[in-house]
Amino acid sequence: MPRLPAGFVWGASTAAYQIEGAADEDGKGASIWDTFVRRPGTVRDGHTGDVACDHYHRLDEDVALMRRLGLDAYRFSVSWPRVLPTGAGKVEPRGLDFYDRLVDALLDAGIEPTPTLFHWDLPQALEDEGGWLNRDTAHRFAEYAAVTAERLGDRVKRWITLNEPFVHMSFGYGFGVHAPGRALMLDALPVAHHQLLGHGLATAALRAAVPDAQVLIANNCTPVRLRPDARSDGDAAAASAYDVLHNRLFNDPVLLGSHPDLSAYGMTDPSWGGVVRDGDLATIAAPLDGLGINYYNPTWVTAPADPAAGLPFDLTEPQETYRRTAFDWPVVPDGLTELLTGLKARYGDALPPVWITESGCSQPAGTDDRERIDYLDGHITAVADAVARGVDVRGYFTWSLLDNFEWAEGYHQRFGLVEVDFATLRRTPRASFDWYRALIAAQRA
């Protein structure tokens, strides 16, 4: 295993709705996921996050596992409706108390807390007013950021505003397979701008409350590839269109202060006009201290079989043979190197230090965990390759510390270094836990 630079941060990630449970305890308000999971057919086998890993009551046990693992940092998310039950207005002190205890426990264990403010659990009360289609939600997000930073900012210095705004827009508002379950297709595009506006406003709020704050956004990015048998100019145009929608729509505004021209790819949205107001892009493009990158696999595209269907690309499968995760995602470590070097080539000096804020795989329960170890080994090596090619990468957070509620898949996908028996909630470290612990120790030696 190549050695990463001195000071490289080794971490693990989780998200509030996926692990906390305690869905209606201590004054917590309903989130869009609390509502969504109760609609028949939305989540496999009707699973919910009501209990999840019960992290809310097992905080000390889980931090002890992190200490044993030897983490430098832990990326978790704050539940917006646990802090502000209706998304705005009255603060729930018991919610803040929980994150206060978590931060103190992490610091006592020598682990740097790295909270994400929004990991998809929007307060249902705000969704009832339009959710991220409503510009006002961006301002409510900034107020929530200020409340949280005022309580935790004396001890928390590294903050992540949003997690994967592309996925939340496309799955939650575009296709309706995640909460809040709206299927608007390209009419969901205002969600992209309003999330990014919320990021910019929250960045200002965080820095006002914590002058030495380090602020990041965690974008899900993918290298876009054509199959080897691609022949037409239409295929190349489809790849460019998908890159714009998935990657550039969320990176260009924060790094360059501009939206990419969607109309060049036939994706002009009739509701886009008027959404972007004077000053918005300057707010969004406030300098970042780091760019979080969540990577899982490349995306293969072709020209659309039916251009009238609405999208200027079709997703396809690779012709190459790759190992597959239990989620049936191809395992392509060199795609991470390709992605990181591509970001450096595209954005140059505008690219801030990069953090791998998610990277991991689902594997079947009860295996020897060899494939998860191989996955981590390959992707950490890919990071080292990118560093050797001049990309400034500061840390790697594996997804995930624990098996958890995996959104529409419920408890059927197992991403954890630690196995969770969801009948008993017993935690059992896997072989990958020991492998990662040894790797971290060796990198420090």
From TrEMBL:
Top-level lineage group: Bacteria
Matches recorded under PROSITE patterns: GLYCOSYL_HYDROL_F1_2 (PS00653)
Coiled coil: none
One of the protein's GO biological processes: cellulose catabolic process
Protein name: Beta-glucosidase
Catalysed reaction, written as an equation: Hydrolysis of terminal, non-reducing beta-D-glucosyl residues with release of beta-D-glucose
Organism: Streptomyces vietnamensis
Family: Belongs to the glycosyl hydrolase 1 family.
Signal peptide positions (record): none
Known EC number: 3.2.1.21
